[in-house]
Amino acid sequence: MASLQEQLLKAGLTTKQKARQANADKRKKNKQKRSGVQHDATLQEQVKIDLVAKQAEKTAKDAALNAEKKQQLAVKEQYLRIKQILEHHQLKNVNGEAEYNYTINKVIKKLYVDQTTLNALVNGRLALCGWDEITYIVTSETAAKLAQLDASVILVQNDKIDNEQLDKDDPYAEYQIPDDLMW
Questions:
Q1: Residues 82, 153: Cα–Cα separation, whole Å
Q2: Three-state SS for 17?
Q3: Domain that holds residue 125
């Protein structure tokens, strides 16, 4: 009696090529069973679970890299914004003979300015800002904006003195000590 495969070939329901392919697949499957390779549903499920875990890990890694890049971009943007504000709002041509002392990192620095600028610095109308080892003289309003961005930029910002009102009963009213006493 002829095999099912021969019967299907005689009836014209299949071709010799398809029959050979079916035999090859059958041999491969038997060989895999003998060699110990398992192709059951649990192995395929494990592969799917591993694939999903790797995709989730890759997604988390990409999200962390994107967050880091955004943070670096924000820091760079803030740096450039502070630099632009300082360069555009700095007071120029204030050099003079009056000496103004201030400290940076426990080091006393001197700045030579004219008398008007010195009085404005002492009274709080002007402030000193430092950026990239450069000292800028800016208005107190500009210093307030910079303090919102980065408070470490402000080197010196005195409190504003509105009008010096002297107490009439003060026995030392005639002996005022200036804030900018040079010694």
A1: 9
A2: helix
A3: 90-156
Residue 147 and residue 130 in contact, taking contact as beta carbons nearer than 8 Å: no
Cα R_g (the chain), whole angstroms: 41
Q: Please report how many Cα atoms fall inside a 13 Å half-sphere around the Cα of residue 109, on the Cβ side.
A: 15
Q: What is the pLDDT of residue 32?
A: 78
Q: Are 137 and 126 in contact (CB under 8 A)?
A: yes
Measure the CA–CA gap between 24 and 175, rounded to whole angstroms: 113
Tell me the CA distances in angstroms from 27 to 24, 34, 69, one per residue in order.
5, 11, 54
What tens digit of pLDDT does each residue of 80-99 get?
999 998 889 888 888 888 88
pLDDT at residue 66 greater than cutoff 90: yes
Question: What is the number of domains present in the chain?
Answer: 1
- Which residue bears the tokens 């910079």? 146
Residue 9 lies in a domain: no
Strand, helix or coil at 128?
Answer: strand
For residue 2, being part of any structural domain is answered with: no
Q: Does 3 map to a domain?
A: no
Here the tokens at position 104 are: 């940076």
Which tokens hold the place of 145? 């904006």
